[in-house]
From TrEMBL:
GO biological process: one example: carbohydrate metabolic process
Organism of this sequence: Hymenobacter setariae
Coiled coil stretches, renumbered: none
Pfam families: Glyco_hydro_18
Residues spanning the signal sequence: 1-28
Single GO MF annotation: hydrolase activity, hydrolyzing O-glycosyl compounds
Keywords noted in UniProt: Glycosidase, Hydrolase, Signal
Domain GH18: 57-313
InterPro entries in the cross-refs: Endoglyc_H, GH, Glyco_hydro18_cat, Glyco_hydro_18_chit_AS
Name this protein carries in UniProt: Chitinase
Domain of life: Bacteria
Family: Belongs to the glycosyl hydrolase 18 family.
Amino acid sequence: MKVGTNRAARPLALFGTLLTLLFSACQKKDELPTPTSPQTLAAPGGVSTNAVGVSGAKTVCYVEVNNNNFYNVGKYSLASGQPLFDIGIIFAANINYNTSTKKATLFFNTQVTNVLNNRATYIQPVQARGIKVLLSILGNHQGAGVCNFTSQAAAREFAQQLASAVTTYGLDGIDFDDEYADYGTNGTGQPNSSSFVYLVSALRELMPNKIISFYYYGPAASRLSYNGVTVGSKVNYSWNAVYGTYSVPAVPGLAKANLGPAAVQITATSSATAATLATRTKTDGYGIYLTYDLPNTNSSSYLSSISNILYGQATTYTP
């Protein structure tokens, strides 16, 4: 489980000259041929299961932007100069609850707002390397979450807010995290069986060519099908949410290439454990390796314990 987010502002400052130096190498990892096997076919909505176009597992990274600079995702490369991370996730926007309208609303705190409004500094240079950028969505202790929309129309209304944010800020998709909702607060309902399916179905319809991922945790993890529709038929990826462990998300409809059983917290999980989980990921043939809490300091040594196994290359850092 991820730690709760704080609301303290942290100044972020970068210089344009570093942009040129850092992102001059925009090559991808080894390109795959046009996929033909079931495990590498395009995922729902026609989105390729390859974020950067890698052979082997894709490395995903959550960044707590309340404390750390999202731009750090682009500072890490393999020894060849190709980007380490395939997907960077801005953690996190919130689902708030409007007690007057009794509707869920999308909320950005000060730090998330700063990243989104200054996307030319923090997001676009990362995307220029081929790294996909997602926005994580989770509850905010107000009773609203992905699992308690009471109708298909209500779920679609919130999905429209998410799709609008993706378009407005030039993002590559949405990540769902069913934490901190505090279902029942403000008179809201408890999780129901249809809500999450309605939400991802509506969002897929609105974003047919964007990425949708699911952080496998919370009430949503046990509410993955309704009326014959599965969440796995609508999302591109799902990954384990318990850091330092190896557990395959039970999401019907997703192949190994779209699942991440290994999860590490960079600032807390040992490098030995990270390496062991990388070995298991590679041996078992899963397509995602999840990392969380990328700090502002150089973590290339730690990340090398992962990349040496997944890609046969050490990780380098451009400050």
